Amino acid sequence: MTQAAFTLTQQDSGIAILSMDVPNESMNVLKAEFADEIDAILTQIESDKSITGLVLISGKDNSFMAGADVSMLEACTSATEATTIAAGGQAMFSRITDLAIPVIAAIHGPALGGGLELALACHARICSDDSSTVVGLPEVQLGLLPGSTGTQRLPRLISFQQSVKMMLTGASVRAKQALKHGIVDAVVPHSILLAQAEQMALAGKPKRGAIKKSLINRFLENTSIGRSIVFKQARKQTLQLTKGNYPAPMAILECIETGLNKGLKAGLQIEAQRFGELVMTPESKNLRSVFFATTAMKKESGVADVSAQSINKIGVLGGGLMGGGIAFVSATKAKVPVRIKDIQTMGIKNALKTAYDILHKRVKRRIIRHSQMQQQLALITGTTDFSGFKDVDMVIEAVFEDLTLKQAMVQDIETQCHDQTIFASNTSSIPIEQIASDAQRPENVIGLHYFSPVDKMPLAEVIAHAGTSDQTISTTVAFAKQQGKTPIVVKDGAGFYVNRILAPYMNEAAQMLLSGEPIDLLDKTMVKFGFPVGPVKLLDEVGIDVGTKIIPILQAQFGDRFIAPDAFAKVLDDDRKGKKNRKGFYDYSSKHKGKVVDESIYTLLNITPKASIAAEDIVRRSVYMMLNEAARCLDEGVIRSARDGDIGAIFGIGFPPFLGGPFRYMDSIGIATLVSRLQAYAADHGDKFTPADCLVEMAKENRTYY
Question: Are the CB atoms for 252 and 151 separated by under 8 Å?
Fold first, then answer.
């Protein structure tokens, strides 16, 4: 017999408690198979006149409801089927709203997607003040829209401009923000959440007053002319941000506008229809594949059946921006004490300032309290010697790329720390085998490569050399997860995975620049394709000196296809390091702040800029170099799977998520088509475009990656 997900318990007061506890799930999720169970419960409530009020609450202590089960959409073979799912959800939630008795949602933990839509269907909402309590409609991040009344109920409940913002970004809000916006009616301690919800139900259906609005907002929200202005501007801004690559945001705006102008019935109809259409788009399918991949990766260990050791304290070698970022995620996410060592006190101060600045912003935005900031900062300490390192379980080095220095650090840690201490190098290019070559305990040496800025970039590459123990791999993967990262395990070698596929992409962009293609045109073309920044701007952001250091290492291991243009030397000789020293390809003066190209770069490189390459060729020449290298990485076992390669590229360098990653993108192009185009480019632009042997074989056998 199937275990029930919903339990109805009636109190002597007449208030019934409907508890949600989905079996075999860590968090509550709505599933299609619950329809009959919910229908039966609602029928019971409707027919039982002794029930005078209803409170919906979670039976789990970590979530109200984290959303609908996205996997049920994978079975849909047509937009009509997906539309039917949305319409079913709408009918169920509308039935809750239509109950004659007051229905109160008591929210603790995440109420996201379908979870918030369920709460919106209730007559009032109360939530706990716990830090885990967040509400939001994140469907846009899956290329979808809230399809079970969300696009209609939220704009009617709160400022529709705020509801538009929430749905277009998919961002969630915490308890106090939810109260301020009017999403919930009260915020209370978790310990009295149920009791207060029962009191609300006993008080009857609440009468909501009009939302207080400024004169300008009354015009913009309460008049058809004002709403027209808001939606016109929203569409303009949305297209500027998405470049038309994501259909869901425009569909969300259409649903909200239809509902406000033509009524709830018309709004619900278009909501279900557009939801069904979006489910079948390649963009949503690819974004859902990213969601499924990251969900699966959270459950995996570094090495199957090898458990991780606990990390109770870490050391960080090297202060500054990178060291400070690593210390920050270790203290605030992993919640372990961090000891920073730098040869200068200024390095420690800079690292502490990095952590302080990030936390201070969160205090100002009321995400955390000042006392919480102090508690988290107290976990980070610094030293110019090795005091406080004897009991650290892992040391992460974050100094500049110098093999001799890193080898010396391994020896220092083996002397200063205990025998089980893991030495993790944040090198972006030097093979870990070389760093571990003189180690007494090479099994403890591993690579743990972060991406800048560490507090924001979700990826970490875990790099094991031939002598790294399975225990070290599993422990490092587990700790990276504790830090809030999505780790991929990659094989040791120059550039590892992400930088190895990034380098040829950047090199080809540089070649087009040197042929006269304007810098801003190159960057805008790649941003329109879907990257967050263009390749030249990215080099400025990373640091031209840092970005070019990896090229000789890659060339030494992989040959001439990694040869960089000589022009890079000219740029560095002119002391152009990019954003960090306010001198690069872009103008970082107070007037332009990196938004326009520094025209003097053309004179330096003896270039007369003139657009001559078609946008399609700019994209293909740069991206196909990346795809070709990604195929080689998988073939050589640098990455474990196409899935890991896709997640690594999306989370590490911002490969367009709506394309699903390099491997899904190769499948969508067609392997044979990709090989043919690479061969054509090789004839025109040299052997560097020669398709990887594995791609040629796949094309012959008509195989795909997925």
Answer: yes
Q: Rounded to 5 degrees, what angle do the CA atoms 579, 582, 588 make?
A: 90
pLDDT at 171: 95
Catalytic site residues? 461
Find all residues with CB under 8 Å of 520, minimum gap 6, and list them. Answer: 596, 597
CATH class of 6-280: alpha beta
Distance CA 133, CA 120 (A): 16
Read off the tokens for 338.
Answer: 């961090």
What does the block give as tokens for 318? 């090297």
Asked if residues 54 and 47 have their Cβ atoms less than 8 Å apart, the reply is no
For the domain spanning 499-574+611-637+670-701, the CATH number is 1.10.1040.50
Residue with tokens 């180690």: 439
DSSP single-letter state for residue 358? H
Mark 439-473 as b/e (b = at least 16 C-beta within 10 Å): bebbbbbbbbbbbeebbebebbbbbbbebbbbbbb
In this prediction, residue 137 carries a pLDDT of 98
The letter for the amino acid at 69 is: D
Alpha-carbon torsion (156, 161, 163, 168), positive or negative: positive
Cis check: omega of the bond before 442, within 30 degrees of 0: no
What residue type is 575 in one-letter code? D
Tokens of 228: 């027209």
Q: Could you tell me if 93 and 117 are in contact, meaning their C-beta atoms sit under 8 angstroms apart?
A: yes
With beta carbons less than 8 A apart as the criterion, state whether 666 and 631 touch: yes
pTM of the model as a whole: 0.93
Give the CA angle between residues 155, 157, 161 to the nearest 5°.
Answer: 40
What counts of helices (H) and strands (E) characterise the chain?
29, 17
Pull the structure tokens for residue 493.
């070698």
Query: How far is it, in rounded angstroms, from Cα 125 to Cα 118?
Result: 10
Alpha helices of 74-138 — where are they, by DSSP H? 79-97, 114-121
- Residues forming a β-bridge with 317: 341, 397
Query: Coil, strand or helix: which one is 434?
Result: helix
Q: Which residues pair with 459 in a beta bridge?
A: 486
Q: What is the pLDDT of residue 1?
A: 47
CATH architecture of 314-491: 3-Layer(aba) Sandwich (3.40)
Rounded to an integer, what distance in angstroms lies between the CA atom of residue 82 and that of residue 84?
Answer: 5
Q: Which backbone phi and psi does 639 adopt, to 5 degrees?
A: -115, 155
21 by Cβ neighbours in 10 Å (0-12 / 13-18 / 19+) ranks as middle
Q: Distance (Å, rounded) from C-alpha 125 to C-alpha 106?
A: 6
**SS3 letters for 412-456?**
HHHHHCCCCCEEEECCCCCCHHHHCCCCCCHHHEEEEEECCCCCC
- CA–CA distance from 394 to each of 338, 339, 448, 466 (Å)? 10, 11, 11, 19
For residue 428, how many other CB atoms are within 10 A of its CB? 23
Q: Is 126 in a helix, a strand, or coil?
A: strand
Separation of alpha carbons 339 and 326, rounded Å: 11
Give yes or no for a contact between 185 and 200, defined as CB atoms under 8 angstroms apart.
Answer: yes
> 660: which DSSP letter?
T
Strand bridging mode 394-397 / 103-107: unpaired
Range 374-378, long-range pairs (CB < 8 A, 24+ positions): 376/331, 376/332, 377/331, 377/352
Regions of the chain where pLDDT drops below 70: 1-2, 210
Amino acid identity of 386? F
Vertex 536: Cα angle to 603 and 615 (nearest 5): 100
Locus of tokens 């600045």: 357
Instruction: Classify residue 323 as left (phi > 0), alpha (psi -120 to 50) or beta.
Output: alpha
The tens digit of pLDDT for each residue in 10-62 reads 999 999 999 999 998 889 998 888 889 999 999 999 999 999 999 999 999 99
- Percent of the chain at pLDDT > 70 equals 99
Q: Are 381 and 338 in contact (CB under 8 A)?
A: yes
pLDDT at 213: 77
So what's the pLDDT on residue 569?
Answer: 86
The full set of domain ranges for the chain reads 6-280, 314-491, 499-574+611-637+670-701
